[in-house]
Amino acid sequence: MPNSNYKNWETFISRTKLYLIIIGILIITICILNYRLIVPGIIVYALIIAYTNWTDNKRKAELSEQLKDLTLNVNTTAKTTLINSPFPLAIVETNGNIIWKSEKFVTEFESLDININEYLSEIVKSIKLTIENKEDNKEKIKGTVNTNLKIQNKDYKVLGSYVKSHKHHSKEQEYTTILYFIEDTYLKNLEQKVKDFKMCVGMIMIDNYEEISQRISSEIKPQIIAKMEKYIYDWASKYNSLVIKTDRDAFFCLMEKKYLKQAEKDKFSILDEVKDIDVPDMLQPTLSIGFSDDGENNVEKAESARTVIDIALGRGGDQAIVKMDGRYQFFGGRTQEVEKRTKVKARIVSHALRELISEADNVILMGHSNGDMDSIGSSMGLYRLIKTLGKEAKIVNETTGIGLDNFLTEAKKSEEYQDAFVTKQEAINSIKPNTVLIVVDTHKKNYVEVPELLEKVNKIVIIDHHRRSTDYIENAILTFHEVYASSASELVTEILEYSQLDIELTQIEVEALYAGIMLDTKNFTFKTGVRTFEAAAYLRKCGLDIIKVKKWFQSDLQTYQIR
Ligand SMILES: [Mn+2]
If you measure from the C-alpha of residue 502 to the centroid of ligand 1, how many angstroms do you get, rounded to a whole number? Predict the structure, then answer.
């Protein structure tokens, strides 16, 4: 405003000058025409100039008066605003001096049972630190303060900007800042509430429902099942959560994060509680629980919860896994693993695998790094399946564990297996648009023989028997993951058995599969189930010479047992 006033003033002056010049010219012209008018002309002109001067001065005085008022008003307004500010304010120097506190500051903080100066000196310290860092960078010193502060049970956002203070006597440079304390307790509470009440989706499964319902008599069955359900419903209502039975042995649960955290603190006591249910025949009911908060909406969360419970089941059940804030937490999991497999799965997988291979350009088989008899044996079993389907197959293998060399030398005696084993580079070169990669005896991303293959091939199949870990290959299109199986070779033998194809395993392949089972079960003593023997029986039918295998791996078995 003062600026534009000044401009008007300028134009006003120049305009007056112009008028005076014009009037002067006119009077001179008149005087030339009539000499008698010279004296009156001079008098009139002098009067005009005098009048103009007078009005000019008057106007100037008025304007400066107005400007003065304006500045005064702004100053007063600023000062009063500062003093009566609705926020607590304080002016502090970086040397620790508190120059001024607003009235609100005093009423807000000084009555409390705290030393507000300590809080202030903390802020000053952090300002000093930023200034020092900036001085190192030789940046212009002018900065802002923006921190959060919790004073008793109130949250504040502290804002401000600091400037160099003009002091001549002190050598050290000091800075002054006004700090605004804006209370945002409500916002913070709201934020916490949103976090606390974030919905988590869970799945609960009775691990051995099938077994229990098959083996107990029908008179007590309803009673036992009702008991198990009651435990689950009671547990959920303890955490104010909704639980819905979706299947005979499966439940869907919605729980708010706050309560899920309580359940975690309680270490999912339900896992132990259900075991107290008295079931005859030494049967012990166990649960698998999977919860997740991962996802934008409940659909995504349910999807994630399904993967989580798959991991829980894959690890042998009787445990709870919670995926929260991107991290997995594991609870329970102490009972002995129970065999819980159906042959249906093997049949389905066998069929699906056949379809996949038939559509493929070629197939690459890969075990884990430092391959053992199980990874090689299962690879060789699948190699025969793929060949029977008339497709090209390669086994990528560069490293081998202890005592596998004997076997590989023997295998490579046959012309076919001289070409079947390839190096990492050969495997990568053989990738076609429609290549299928079958990973055997592991499911861990970083444990496979050639991790690059996982990225380069789209269609990945996993056949494994190890306890599920979080580092699993995520994008597999077909997974045959049975933790109750003794070995990958056992699973592959089942696939071959149910393939409904006339597969003629060669002598070395039968031996490799059998040796794989033998080594992983420590000669049929460890993790050996009914189906392990069934697989062995099938291999025997395929013309297995047990004595020959034993002779080969005698030394290996010894080293294995020593280890
Ligand atoms: Mn194995």
Answer: 26
CA of 465 to the centre of ligand 1 (A): 7
CB atoms within 10 A of CB 201: 25
Quote the number of domains for the chain: 4
Element containing residue 463 per DSSP (H, E): strand 459-464
Which of these, 537, 531, 534, lies nearest to 484 by C-alpha position? 531
Q: CB-based contacts of 270: which residues, under 8 Å, 6+ apart?
A: 231, 232, 235, 287, 289
Nearest-CA neighbor of 482 among 372, 282, 305, 317? 317
What interhelical angle do 488-497 and 343-359 show, nearest 10? 80
**Same structural domain, 232 and 310:** yes
Check whether residue 72 and residue 116 sit in a common domain.
no
Ligand 1 centroid, distance to 457 Cα (angstroms): 23
Q: How far is the CA of 16 from the centre of ligand 1 (A)?
A: 106
Mean pLDDT of 508-534: 89
Percent of the chain with pLDDT over 90: 35
pTM flag (> 0.85) = no
Query: Are 129 and 262 within one domain?
Result: no
C-alpha dihedral over 252, 255, 257, 262, to 10 degrees? -110
**Which tokens belong to 400?**
């081998």
What pLDDT shows up at residue 85?
Answer: 80
Q: Which of 511, 538, 499 is nearest to 389 (CA)?
A: 499
Separation of 220 CA from ligand 1 center, angstroms?
A: 41
* Pair (328, 409) in one structural domain: no
pLDDT of 356-365, one tens digit each? 898 899 999 9
Mean pLDDT throughout 181-205? 92
Domain that holds residue 34: 2-83
